[in-house]
Amino acid sequence: MMTLKFSAQKADKRKAVCGYCVLLLCVFPAMATAAKPQSPEQEVAACIPCHGANGISMHSSWPNLAGQDKQYLAMQLKAYRDGTRKSAMMYPMAFDLTDEDIDEIANYFHQLSCNE
């Protein structure tokens, strides 16, 4: 009979992973059932902390969205949503967006001026 031995460090890692999974199972369904925003301004509110109120990023790690091509923006958001473009930061923002939501967000940022 084979006996498996786990170190305390491995047990701690398993507990941490299990805790993270439980958190995800609790948070994502709650996010998915939350009331959907009614206007494009409400829809893009989640984008502002990283991409700026006017679509001009607050940090060089995050791209400016103002004035970007709307088809490009929509394609990228759909890729994040569908998991074909991987991002731990963007997937939670995009996973429950409909095609209509994405088109509204892309159009909103497309119409903003890219001049600060």
Q: Describe it for me?
A:
By secondary structure, the protein is mainly alpha-helical. The protein contains 6 helices and no strands. It has a domain at 38-113: Cytochrome c-like domain (Cytochrome Bc1 Complex, Chain D, domain 2, Orthogonal Bundle), CATH 1.10.760. Helix 4 runs antiparallel to helix 6.
Features:
mainly alpha, Cytochrome Bc1 Complex, Chain D, domain 2, 55% helix
Integer-rounded radius of gyration = 19 Å
Number of strands: 0
Report on the biggest sheet. Answer: none
Order of helices and strands: HHHHHH
Q: What is the CATH architecture annotation of the domain at 38-113?
A: Orthogonal Bundle
Helix content: 55-70%
Beta-strand level of the residues, as a percent range?
under 5%
CATH domain class name of the domain at 38-113: Mainly Alpha
The CATH topology of the domain at 38-113 corresponds to: Cytochrome Bc1 Complex, Chain D, domain 2
The fourth-level CATH homologous superfamily of the domain at 38-113 is Cytochrome c-like domain
Poorly predicted tracts of residues = none
What topology emerges from the helices and strands here?
Layout: H1 8-33, H2 40-43, H3 48-51, H4 70-82, H5 91-94, H6 99-111
Helix pairs in contact: 4-6
Question: Brief overview, please?
Answer:
The protein has helices at residues 8-33, 40-43, 48-51, 70-82, 91-94, 99-111. It is mostly helical and 116 residues long. The longest helix is centred in the first third of the chain and has 26 residues, at 8-33.
